[in-house]
Amino acid sequence: MKALPSIDPTLPPDRYPERVWYTSYGSNTHLDRLAAYIKGGRPPGAGREYPGCRDPAMPARSVPVELTGAMYFATESAVWGGGRAFYDPDADGRVLARAHLVTSGQFADIAAQEMYRLPVGDLDLAEVLTRGRAVLGDGRYETLVCAGQVDGLPVLTFTAPWGMNDVPWVVPSAAYVRFLAAGLLSAGAWDTEAVASYVASCPGADGHWSPRAVAALLGDGTHGQRPPGRP
């Protein structure tokens, strides 16, 4: 298994970096899923076509990381059905994630597509890199978070402006769970048991998805089934 890079929690000194670590904790942990955001297209099981980034180059590197906080599922995804993954950096716990080394322009384009917008311009990252957080709007993925740095480059992600306990939790679909879990597994730092137990324990999945059911998705490639309850 791969060793986890250590995230330096201090904010990076460069406020205008050319490259950043786009850190995914949801379905973009999977490179095939991420490719739809970067190159354009429709990933299997998704209900939407993506325009892609202005720069269609895939990440120079992708590394497994763990963030402080919690992941939970909420709102209703028009792409997958069921709940979306969100990150609460203020909650207790740990979040399994995958950091992709992309340009700052690609990070802006991925963020735009998460909000169903066209990728047309860069983001000013100065505030998030100075304060650790920047609220760009009230949209579900318009709050930027910087968890620190790896190799001198910022570890950036985006999430909702609300906290984990401020919204109802929503059960994620099988297709979404499969992409998320398969992406984490392919990162090479965690085995099937660890990934399945982690995903099944996240609010929204907990009580609806069992570790056994998540592990079964990783083994059989099932798409679109309803989440089985715990045995």
From TrEMBL:
Listed name of the protein: Histone deacetylase
Organism: Streptomyces eurythermus
Biological classification of the source: Bacteria, Bacillati, Actinomycetota, Actinomycetes, Kitasatosporales
